[in-house]
Amino acid sequence: MPPKKQIAVLGSFLTNPQSVEYAMAEELGYLLAKNGFEVVCGGHGGIAHPLVSGLTRGGGKVRGIAMKDSRFPGRNAKMDSRITEIIKVDSIAERLEVLAGADGYIFFNGGIGTLTEFAFIWHSLQVTGNFTKSLILVSRNWNHLLAEIRQEQMIKHKYYRVLHLCERTRDVLAVLANDYSIKYEKVGCVFYKEAVLFNLEGTIVESPEEVFIRICENHGYFFRPPDVIAAFRSVGRLSSFPDGGIAQVMPILEGLGVSGESAPALADELLREFEKLPELHDDVVDALRYFREKGFFTAVLSALPSSQVQEILSSHSLSCFFDFIGTLDRRGEKPMPGLLEEMLTVSGVHRDGCIHIADDLSGGNPGPGSLGVQSILLDRYLGNLLENNTFTIRSLGELKYLVKHRSAT
Which residues pair with 38 in a beta bridge? Predict the structure, then answer.
């Protein structure tokens, strides 16, 4: 039997017993125990008290970290008697090393100590390159903090993939178990459809904006995804790879404040990267295979020319997964009414039987959503932390549990 996964649960020593988080910690402890997880925590009170209560009720095991000679009042008090194992450490550095050895991490709201642990563990995952571990942040208070970090700090956007923001205990469990049926187990959370429409760029393969962000970050320029999208639109390109050469890329850079001697060299590298075929996202093939097996009609929509779309799909061996490939050189301008009508005719599916997946659903790029087709935002890199006006998922793996085939119900 494989060893049980150990989850580090962290938060404030001063958590209010009347708070929502306090109640959530008790429920979470119970669910973790019932689903076979073991827990390591501080064990001296605060958020640890309800957590240990829930773990005990669920028959689980919990390890507590006792640090020698803590200078904080109450921290040297006797640990919760229900702790099944006490780990004694002599310093904060040792405590952090113990926490870093867990298989996953859950952070409630906290003070300086919690923020330190969050930063240390996030950095440890970056340094080791181990992005199989989940770092889960509970409550929307984290959204605002991360939005500030996202805007001001020099952190590559790929490192946000490991972060998960959860407001419910069942969402936390879904991430840890990699089973999103837990999150969408209630019928009201599931979309019953017959066809799934994917944007090509950003959803299936890297978008030009993602390529732009990746290359710029390698040169020390860090931009928020919405700002990059706006800069691309300012030169008249909604979602296609720049084809106007240096004259098109330079205004994008200038619009984001990049100028001087370094700008032309950066523009040259961006153009060389744009000439390559875009990279396939790692969650695509499994999801597409799932939808084919379940009998969905699947389509891909793109603003690129047909020949380029076919080249991208063929190079990644994806053509076999789609029943319809729609491009704007066939059917006019966005929001592609003619293209959508053609797809509906081919598939025999009514508009309310479609679900549309895109990486940008802002007002400047409404897509099928403006034509009565329900849309979902795929936000892999937490680029829309403070947006609450659309249904959002983090991966196509999550989409598999969210969308069910109508004829199977």
Answer: 6
The candidate with the shortest Cα–Cα distance to 104, out of 85, 129, 132, is: 132
Determine how many CB atoms are found less than 10 A away from the CB of residue 33: 20
Q: Which residue has the tokens 């076979």?
A: 36
Residue 54: what residue type? G
Q: Please provide the distance, in angstroms rounded to a whole number, between the alpha carbons at the two ends of the chain.
A: 36
**Residues of the chain under the 70 pLDDT cut:** 1-3, 69-78, 236-247, 329-337, 361-367, 369, 388-389, 408-409
CB atoms within 10 A of CB 261: 6
Position of tokens 């109450």?
74
Cis amide linkage into residue 17, ω under 30° from 0 = no
Please tell me the distance from the alpha carbon of residue 348 to that of residue 128, in angstroms, as a whole number: 49
The per-residue pLDDT for range 326-349, each reduced to its tens digit, is: 887 655 555 566 778 888 888 889
In whole angstroms, give the CA distance from residue 245 to residue 219. Answer: 20
Q: The tokens of 350 are what?
A: 């009514």
Q: What is the torsional sign of CA 403, 406, 407, 409?
A: positive
Rounded distance, CA 15 to CA 66, Å? 19
Q: Are 381 and 222 in contact (CB under 8 A)?
A: no
- Local structure of 146: helix, strand or coil: helix
Look-up: residue for tokens 């827990």?
39
Q: What share of the chain is helix, strand, coil (3-state, %, to 5)?
A: 45, 15, 40
Q: Is 132 helix (H, G, I), strand (E, B) or coil?
A: coil
Q: Per the confidence metrics, is the pTM higher than 0.85?
A: yes
Q: What's 119's DSSP letter? A: H
Pairing of strands 163-166, 134-138: parallel
Bond prior to 335 in cis (omega within 30° of 0): yes
